[in-house]
Design goal:
Layout (H helix, E strand, L loop, with lengths): L1 H14 L2 H8 L1
Helix pairs in contact: 1-2
Length: about 25
């Protein structure tokens, strides 16, 4: 689950949502 969230976080970061990505990663 955490790995999947981390992957999604990277996608969001590329989309331009660093804050959301950080929340997903953490």
């Amino acid at each position: 689950m955490q790995e999947a969230k981390s992957g999604w976080g990277k996608v969001f970061a590329l989309d331009g949502g660093d804050v959301e990505a950080d929340n997903l990663i953490r």
